[in-house]
Amino acid sequence: MGCSPKFDWREVRGAGAPYKISLPAKPASHARAVNLDGLQVTMTMTAAEVDHITFAVGAIEVADEAQAHKALQAMRTALLRNIEGTVKREVVTPQMIDIEASGASRMLLGHFVAKGKFVYQVVALGPESTLSQPPSREAADIFLTSFNPD
Prior knowledge:
By secondary structure, the chain is of the alpha+beta class. Helix content is about 20%, strand content about 50%. The strands form two sheets. A seven-stranded antiparallel β-sheet has the order 3-4-5-9-8-7-6. It has a three-stranded antiparallel β-sheet with strand order 1-2-10.
């Protein structure tokens, strides 16, 4: 199960971005400049890895809320491009995108959220053979549903 000893769940709060999330191991964080379809921003990424699956939350702050939807779409597109992915399932609203995709023997489960001037990407990425099966899939679901933008 997602609560097995290999998943050492802990609540993490965003540094510089208002959110909290449960991660299955001790995370590392870093920030770097990124170009999201012409939008220059600094993304702070906090991630942990268990069983070759990366559990990551990225956060950016845009200059105004009008840019949030563009950034949301650009994050989705960039991650799909990175895995040469094909969308299996997708739910889209103006402030949120949920996606399941696969490519290059990798599986991506993503939750992208815009709230005010903050845009978040919450993703579990790993080998499709591992991430599509319990307990890893259950752990990914726990991780994705624990995200709460404050």
